[in-house]
Amino acid sequence: MKLNFLLIALFFWSFEASHAQDKGNLLIRNGTILTVTKGTLEGSDLLITNGKIAKIGKNLTAPTGYQTIDASGRYVMPGIIDAHSHIAVDAVNEATSPVTAEVQIRDVLNPLDISIYRALAGGTTISHAMHGSANAIGGQCQTIKHRYGVKLPEALVMEGAPRTIKFALGENPTRVHGRGSGVNPSTRMGVEYVIRDAFERGKRYMNEWEAYKKNQIGPPPAYNLRSEVIADILKGNILIHAHSYRADEILMLMQVLKDYGVKKVTFQHANEAFKVAPELAAFGATASVFADWWAYKMEVYYSTAYNASILTKNGVRTSINSDSADFIRHLNLEAAKTQKYGGMSDDEALAMITINPAAQLGIEQRTGSIEVGKDADIAIFNVHPLSIYAINQMTIVDGVVRFDREADPDDMRLSVRPDGPVEAAELSTESHDRCMQGVDWLMEESATTLGAKIFHQHKY
Amino acid sequence: MQLRCLSWYCFVWLTIVAPVFSQPSPEKPLAPVSKNWHIVNARIVQSPGKTIEKGSVVIENGLITQVGTVTNVPYDAIEIKGDSLTLYPGFIDGLSHIAIPRPKEEPLPRIPRPGEPDYSRGGIQPDVDVRSFLKADDPSVDEWRKLGFTAAHVAPFGRMIPGKTALIFLSGQNANQMIFQPQVAVMGQLLGAARGQGQQVYPSNDLGILAFWRQAFGAAKQSLFYESTYHKNPSGLQRPVTDPIHTALFPVLKGEKQVVFFANDYIDALRGLRLADDLGYKTLLAGLKNGYEILPQIKSRSMPVFLSLELPEMPKEIKEKTLAASTNERIDSPTKTPAETSRLIQTQKQSYLQHIRQAAVFQESGILFGFSTKEVKPANIRKNFGTLLQNGLNESQLLASLTTNPAKILGVETQLGSIEKGKIANLIFSEGPVFDEKSQIRMVMVEGSLFKYPRNAPKKGTNTEGGNGSDTFSAVLGTWTISVVTPGGTQEGTLVFSTSAGTLQGSLKTNDENSTLQDVKLEGQTLTCKGNAQNSDIVFTLKLDGETLSGTVYVTALQSDLPVTGTRTTKPN
User: Fold this and answer.
1) Which of A55, A235, B86, B548 has a beta carbon 3.0–4.6 Å from A47's, enabling a disulfide?
2) B103 and B64 both lie in a single domain
3) Which chain B residues contact residue A222 at CB under 8 A?
4) Interface list for B 551-570 with A (CB within 8 A)
5) What is the domain extent for residue B493?
6) Residues B87, B59: contact at Cβ < 8 Å?
7) pLDDT at B184 over 90
């Protein structure tokens, strides 16, 4: 009975201790620093104090107690930011109503999702955990930091990140609600109506409250959380991220927003955005797209891999997103595709997975580039991250090493069932379908008739 | 002829009819000849840690009037001879559906706008009172009473807010007699709206549930505000329109009642706490299975909890004694090597141990806790008590979590939870220690009503009492191959037991060391002994079951109990 008690005890103790601290102190030495916004610095050091970038320069010395990481021959870049994902959540769609502005992804965060660790393995430090695309106005999303190892859902929340909300245009809301439940919307016109109707209710609600607050006599207007959130959108307190594909629906939403004075919008997917790039630029809208992925349903046929490049050249701030627990692990390669299709510069390509998504999430003052004062969210690659040979080596969030390829046990799950069969920690084969998670019931309920007609193989 | 007829009649009477009459019915209380009782010469466990070795108890009109030395026995008190019995205070369940028939799950009709159900259709029903569902003769009442439960905190079946709970006694002819404390709390849980035919209805998952919850409480808060404003001075004010759902939430918003939030998983429990924090009401968690993850959150709120009494089954992989050899058959993907599988099993073991040690961890943290029986099968209760006792909880702590603790949590500690003068006579009459699986509960008293349970026939081959020398110890003598599940892997070893001069001797043999075991004791089927391995003191607590054994070894250096399984490989003739 070889019980190596001390060793075992030590292992558990050190595991606990490494996660107890949320902000780290580090010195990353002698790497090629890709700042993204301030050029590339060869043979430079990065000093991280209390989770923030404190100094960038040559021959920096680490104060006592700092861990030193040798980045000789390696590339140090800002942690990758994914503006569209559905990892680390227990529910994606509240698909029962075409407007569910009141629901919050923050309520359903799940820090135990192994996908967070896998995203870290690809250098992604921040993701935008989004509501799905079943509803014209879906739920409020949550920008999270990949602090894998924490067990409290709230510990994932990127404190201070602006509120965001999911909108969805086109086929998904029309088939779920119109064809699925027999309620509005069943057409693109219907989607516009549903959004305008919700805005109108929100505006009225806001006005009623303003009137009530003036004299406060009589009963207050009936409390309505949904309208309260819509009112916050109209006041500009919530950033809109709209699932969209076609040029006409993109123009439609910009017109609606213009009518209500809402200025900040990011079009998600936006495969036809290249057709309306000047209009997007004029509005000040941004786009978050796939590098080269389309044709999975009718509204996504007219597409091009040059989309991101065309948008960038037209002055539309563009990011490349994953919408997938798989793609989130190699967004650097997705960004590199914009160099093949459209000849983006290194900084332009890297910006699409760092500072641009940061801007779309309203966190560009704190993340998305390597600058003094910003959060120390860092990915260290073996070669240039846009190279096909790039493999992420280490990922740092708030100065804490959350992934290290050299210390990467097979099983990093934080929780397993106490009584069920032991499953291997495998990558799910269905990693691309969470956008429409929560509407499977439609499929089940009417597998023979309705479902077969309205559901295609893909669901994004 | 006549005589033969008579003897035939006697034969029939004695063999067939009489036994039926003389069998006490476990279902119904004895006829109330008197409501007063005198229990004589019993061992009385008054409360956890407080025992009278031999004493009497007098009960008048359902209340305990004298305990220990009895001076004044009412003339009509029925005497119960307690010489071979131990008295315990009746158990109190923290949250369940005892006495409530499970409603049939019928598909509800479609509604035209599934995204806009009214409160009731969406599952918010704080106006519902569990009282209207109570069924005195529901089989669950006797099932749980038989196990020593005399009171239960019960909630209606339903969805996210199924209604108001009540503390009931497990006796009585109708709801009024059963209810001890009405409307104790409002129950909440993360359960979305029931489906309509071919449609899902809002809220369909946690996203909608939390939002709908906020909507209901937010609206109720506003109603409460306006109604109180209006009632202060209604003149000149538009009258408030009341909604019974909002009104039912007022006591929660005013802090008069709590929401008892049922959740197995700590992440779900945190969602319940988040709602309580955001909306500003008091909440109590029930049903936790992995609450050890949120001890600081519970502690900082000075909040008591009801833990789930359902415990996980020990996984097959942990029971299997030859883990290393069995791994090759589990390779079902290129990424899953035998070494990885072995580590996965270690992770699972860790999880299993954490789950069964949850109560012990709460005890150590000083958090007041009881148990919810909502999900556990009555048949598993006594086994689970055993598991809890083998995993860090002692008998008095377990007793407290079933008696004094829930009484305190539910605010009835002056009336329930212990055998003391002035308290309600909810008692267990056990043949021996109440948590010993072998000692049966023979009677249960609920508020002075006595329920008798006939003795079950003992299982064959388990009786080891009596005899001497090697006969007494035959159940353990011989060589046992054991495996111990350690955080660093499964370890094999051999235990050898023999007798010398009427006492048990034992030794432990492992790969690299041999050691003698001390204090080898066999009590019933439980074997305990102390030893040393790898410079650490260890204590085995093993349950024998024929040719196999299972239990734990406490390792001082690790400060934890590790599971042990084993089989007897040789035994003396």
Assistant:
1) A55
2) no
3) 219, 222
4) 555, 557-558
5) 470-570
6) no
7) yes
pLDDT (average), residues B60-82? 94
Residue B118: Cβ within 10 Å count: 10
Q: Are residues B120 and B42 in the same domain?
A: no
Contacts of A105 in chain B (CB under 8 A): 207
Residue-wise pLDDT tens digits, A229-241: 999 999 999 999 9
Interchain pair A223, B345: CB under 8 A: no
Cα B179 from Cα B163, distance rounded (Å)? 16
Q: How far is Cα B330 from Cα B314, in angstroms, rounded to an integer?
A: 19
> At A228, which helix (H) or strand (E)?
helix A225-234
| Mean pLDDT, residues A423-430 | 56
Closest-CA residue to A396 (of A147, A45, A181, A212): A147
Question: Does residue B78 have a pLDDT over 70?
Answer: yes
Residues in chain B: 573
Q: Pick from B190, B207, B347 the residue to mutate for testing the A interface (most A CBs within 10 Å).
A: B207
Taking the Cβ of residue B514 and every Cβ of chain A, the question of whether any pair is shorter than 8 Å is answered with no
In a domain, B396, yes or no: no
Q: What is the mean pLDDT of residues A126-153?
A: 97
Last residue of a domain, one of B372, B390, B408: B390
Residue A156 near residue A150, CB atoms below 8 Å: yes
Å from B104 to nearest chain A CA?
21
Q: Token digits for A436? A: 């429409």
pTM over 0.90: no
Q: Do residue A102 and residue B214 have CB atoms under 8 angstroms apart?
A: yes
Looking up tokens 């919850």 gives: B213
ipTM over 0.95: no
Residue B524 forms part of a structural domain: yes
Reported as a single tens digit per residue, the pLDDT across A143-198 is 999 999 999 999 999 999 999 999 999 999 999 999 888 899 999 999 999 999 99
Please tell me the predicted confidence (pLDDT) of residue B32: 62
| Same-domain pairing of B423 and B321 | no
Answer yes or no: do B71 and B212 share one domain: no
Where do the structural domains in chain A lie, given as residue ranges? Answer: 1-79+368-408, 80-367+431-454
pLDDT at A428: 52
* The two structure tokens encoding residue A196: 């305008």
Q: Are residues B52 and B147 in the same domain?
A: no
Query: Does domain A1-79+368-408 correspond to CATH entry 2.30.40.10?
Result: yes
- The answer, for B135 touching chain A at a CB cutoff of 8 Å, is no
Residue B466 has pLDDT above 80, yes or no: no
Same-domain check for residues B176 and B292: yes
Beta-carbon contacts below 8 Å between A and B: 207
Q: What is the mean pLDDT of chain A?
A: 90
Tell me which CATH homologous superfamily contains domain A80-367+431-454.
Metal-dependent hydrolases (3.20.20.140)
3-state secondary structure of A83: strand
Tens-place pLDDT, residues A321-375: 999 999 999 999 999 999 999 999 999 999 999 999 999 999 999 999 999 999 9
Indicate yes or no: CB of A96 within 8 angstroms of CB of B208: yes
Contact yes or no for B78/B57 (Cβ under 8 A): no
pLDDT of residue A427: 55
Q: Cβ contacts of residue B221 below 8 Å, gap of 6+?
A: A223, B253, B279
Residues of A in contact with B536 (CB under 8 A): 3, 5
Match 């960004």 to its residue by tokens.
Answer: A335
Q: Are A378 and A371 in contact (CB under 8 A)?
A: no
The pLDDT value recorded for residue A454 is 39
| Residue A443 pLDDT grade (very low, low, confident, very high; cuts 50, 70, 90) | low
Q: Which two structure tokens, joined as six digits, stand for B309?
A: 């009494």
Inside any domain, residue B348: yes
A302 versus A216: the higher-pLDDT residue is: A302
Tally the residues of chain A: 460
Cβ <8 Å between B218 and A223:
yes
Give the DSSP per-residue string, B486-520: ETTEEEEEEEEEEEETTEEEEEEE-SS-EEEEEEE
